[in-house]
Amino acid sequence: MDVIEHLPDPGIMLQRMHSVLRVGGKAIIGTPLFINRDLVSPYHVREFNVDELTTLVQGYFCDLQVALLPERRLDGIVYQNNFCENLTLEVGLANVSSEELKNAFTALHSRPLV
Questions:
Q1: For the chain, which residues make up each domain, given as ranges?
Q2: 51-58: long-range contacts at Cβ-Cβ below 8 A with a sequence spacing of 24 or more?
Q3: Mind listing the pLDDT tens digit for each residue in 34-83?
Q4: How far apart are CA 86 and CA 54, in angstroms?
């Protein structure tokens, strides 16, 4: 999901995701991270930093991994660790590596940097 920054109450989406995922199901949540007010899209209700996003997602999912990817922002600069990908897993499942997370994200959502 690449919509969390557009929602006035992202908890509603996270609760719904948790309720429809099967045991062992995975959810990938992507969002640009907050840098400063000048770079916030006018279409975003809120941009999170890594700690805020992690705290929010951990309220609904027990196992969480974070991968940071490059992202081009409004100023045209590519910030190396600015697009946050969270992979959420159900309790007791084997961990997924960051490389597997990046591959899954790339397959679902290509973002050209040029």
A1: 4-98
A2: 53/4, 53/29, 53/84, 53/86, 54/86, 56/10, 56/11, 56/14, 57/14, 57/29, 57/86, 57/88
A3: 888 888 889 999 999 888 988 898 888 877 778 888 888 888 888 888 77
A4: 8
Q: Which region holds residue 74: left if phi is over 0, alpha if psi is between -120 and 50, else beta?
A: alpha
AA letter at 84 = C
The pTM (predicted TM-score) of the whole model is 0.68
Contact (Cβ atoms closer than 8 angstroms) between residue 49 and residue 34: yes
What the block records as the tokens of 110 is 């290509």
The whole-angstrom separation of Cα 5 and Cα 102 is 20
- Name the fold adopted by 4-98: Rossmann fold (3.40.50)
